[in-house]
Amino acid sequence: MKKSLGEKVFDVFNVLLMVFLCVIMIYPYINQLAIALNDGTDTMMGGITIYPRKLTWVNFEAILTSKSIWKAAGVTAASAICSTVLILVTCVGAAYAMTKKQMPLRSFFIWFLMIPSYISAGIIPTFILYRYLHLLNSWWVYVLPGAFVFYNTIIIRTYLSSLPTALEEAAYIEGANEIQILYKIILPLCKPILATIALWSVVAAWNSWTPTLYYVNDSNLYTLQYVVMQLIKQSEAISKMTTEAMMTGTDMTHVKPTSEAIKSAAIICSTLPIILSYPFLQRYFVQGVTIGAVKD
């Protein structure tokens, strides 16, 4: 069909808007990549946009040869994998139970799980609770407190409600019990929503640094994002010192100039695993969000 002038104008505007949004979202990452590939001393002069002025791999070598970075990456990867598996197990089990109208006190349990999602005890009571549970300075503080997410449970429950009930009825006739139905019939049909929840959980665990700040003092248990946050703070402090020195004429030759570039290299390395894994889950992610959030 021949498009009208208004439709053509809308298409052009839509394409330009999408290009603009892509540019403003991609530019910061490309800028950080350019800084990471640029010489640290030259970076302090500013003006780096989307390409390095003095190409070097020194900053990435400093990150990839750092034992603290690799140790933090291992802690983060282990906690992200374990917490994601635990979230899937608990949320799928709770969601499957909530789909059963014959479950005793079903409404009570839904409200009982919903209320804590809106009301938080705060940092101090949480800290005291973790101390009595012996979670302080423990790797389990990254896994156990977030083992159940009610929002994810509701999303999975909505998805399960969209599945035909005839499948379960046929399984009951064949003599299957609830566990067999869940793991042999329901879960194979839930790949989209499970991939969606897994992606959310992995990204949240990978990007988390506040539990380390609040509850961990052992440097062997630092997460990757917490180490990156420390690099950012150091870079900001050095940048402030450099600015003040330029205004007062103070000699700053003793200050190591590569912190800004190393910070950018650490940001690139810490975000790369999530960026590389997303394309493999994108198909399930879109389908899972659409069905799990729209169908009732």
What does this structure look like?
The relative contact order is 0.13. This protein has 296 residues and is mostly helical. It has a single domain, classed as MetI-like (MetI-like fold). The two termini are 36 Å apart. The longest helix has 36 residues, at 259-294. Helices cover 72% and strands 0% of the residues. It has helices at residues 5-36, 40-43, 58-64, 67-98, 106-118, 123-132, 150-161, 165-173, 178-186, 191-207, 210-215, 224-248, 259-294.
What is the molecular shape?
A: globular
Order of helices and strands: HHHHHHHHHHHHH
CATH superfamily: MetI-like
Please give the CATH architecture: Orthogonal Bundle
Low-confidence stretches: 292-296
Provide the domain count.
1
Say how many strands there are. 0
Summarize the main sheet. none
Oligomeric status: single chain
Cα-based radius of gyration, to the nearest Å:
25 Å
What is the averaged pLDDT score?
A: 82
Q: For the record, what CATH class applies?
A: Mainly Alpha
Total of helices: 13
| Proportion in helices | over 70%
Name the features.
296 residues, mainly alpha, MetI-like fold, 13 helices, globular, disordered C terminus
